[in-house]
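Possible regression after last week's pipeline update?

I re-ran a chain I had predicted before the update to compare outputs. Posting the input and the new output here so someone can diff against the archived version. Not blocking, just want to make sure nothing changed silently.
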Amino acid sequence: MTDSFKALVIGASRGIGLGVVNELAKRGWQVTATTRGATPDSAPASVEWLKLDINKPAERHAVREVLSEIRFDLIFINAGVFGPGHQDVTKSSDDEIVQLFMSNTFSPVRCAAELLPLLKPKTGIMALMTSQLASLNENEVATYPLYSASKAALNMLTRGLKEATDKHQQTLLSVHPGWVQTDMGGENATLTITESTQGIVDQFEAYRGKGGHHFIEYSGRELRW
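New output (post-update):
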């Protein structure tokens, strides 16, 4: 196990995050994962769990300190909330908008920046969960505009990490999971969690050592910004 790839998955209590943890563990990766609450019952016994609310700076710093001696092949920041159900900026309170952007945009990038020193040079991958809806080209009718805007901002701030990852020849990924049957995606979504997460992990393995910043979906298709 000491020679296996090492992954850190931030936000893995359920859904796609937990699915990625399960898939990585199945492929022999050594996985550390975080959750705000209880450890999921369905998680593999080999996974090491830490408590983390990414919106709390002290907790982000504590996780970095605990893991300071480890160098990861992959760090995956999986965060996302839908925001107000009506998705109408004119009906949203300031607090709702701030909370949406803190959870989907600012905290994930701050977390990534704080954890970058734990990423292996050359072959390491820093990946952040985004959405195809973040793209002005892919989302021509502004579907779910508040959610999409928070992810578009995430993509831009993620690009701001590129100077640091380029310096160490690491790879930066903005990953769209597809339309997945989760609490957010709903039962009519076209992909199961297993289908999505198998594809996501395939991309993690395929992009090792490529460098640069790539906006991709679970299937490997490159998306337009």
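Follow-up from reviewer: compared with the archived run. The two ends are 38 Å apart (CA to CA). Marking as no regression found.
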